[in-house]
Amino acid sequence: MAYQPNNPSFSSDAIHLSSAFGNPTIRDVVPPICLSTIYEQDVPPTYKKGDHVVAQNDLYHGIFNLFNRLNLETNEIEVDFVDASISDNFKNIIRKNTKLVWLETPTNPLMKMVDLQTVTSLIKSQNPSTIIACDNTFLSPYFQRPANFGVDIVMHSCTKFIGGHADVLMGALCTNNEDIYTKLKNDQVFYGPVPSSFDCYLVLRSLKTLEIRMQRHMSNALKVARFLEQHPMIEKVFHPGLESHEHHELSLKQCYGHSGIFSFYIKDHNIDTTLKVVKRLRFILLAESLGAVETTLKIPSIMPPNSLTDEEMKAQGITNGLIRINVGLENPEDIIEDMRQALDF
Fold first, then answer.
1. Closest CA to 135 of 110, 165, 163, 114
2. pLDDT tens per residue across span 224-262
3. By residue range, what is the domain housing residue 46?
4. What is the CATH number of the domain that holds 338?
5. Whole-prediction pTM value?
6. Do 168 and 231 share a domain, yes or no?
7. Strand partners, 236
8. Coiled-coil stretches, from where to where (predicted)?
């Protein structure tokens, strides 16, 4: 089996639609930078206490910490955490006051997949007004489009694959729902999370090369993952594109491919061994972020920001032998050779 066939005109749309402002006086091939810092706004929204949120239990740390704090430190919002990779966990958890369900697929760092079609159907059948949001950072809109499966809000960290060059600090929320769009726009004006004009310019630049970059990320990462899967120092590789992954079939059904991000276990799960491997690397970088042209890796158990307790890390499968790697755009044989010489000792 193979991934779903992608839109053959994705790159054409990304290159040309980003410049189509609908204004006949703007003829720039490169979109201009708008430097205004003042915009007309609508009336700010109102909020109420007593809302219920369901969140995935292995979310990106920033979102997990936010929901955890809301759950433990305030009396305003109640949050339930679930393993979203098991669709049946949503059968009896949605309430009349469930305002939001927050998903992430694949997950960070063990690459679990969420069956978006099944999960969104289960949620909406219990409460049609519940808003479903999904973090799509790891795959970008090129490889996965959650809105096609009933997700109301799709989130991207544009800092990662969409930006692609480690030079942007920016996020995006996307929706096909006009009411949600209006509320999000009002919230943006009211709270102030507005990216700079230059960051917007850089993201528009990067969108033009998203397709070709993601294709290279995918092909490189699969070659590295297959190499690691056969290496005697590696216990397990977590890459949805591999037949050995527990959600491989779901990945093929739901996605158009996979990016450069995956993770793997070093066999003895000893931090000294893991650090020795990392220190022996010659050009692969130890870094927190991901999605850029350079190959980087992270040791989730010891690298900040990690606010999980030992029990929470154990429950999520985060050990001292776990490494998350973002395979970049270098020659794949060079990446493999660097991994080989680091592991062979």
1. 114
2. 999 999 999 999 999 999 999 999 999 999 999 999 999
3. 10-206
4. 3.90.1150.10
5. 0.88
6. no
7. 265
8. none
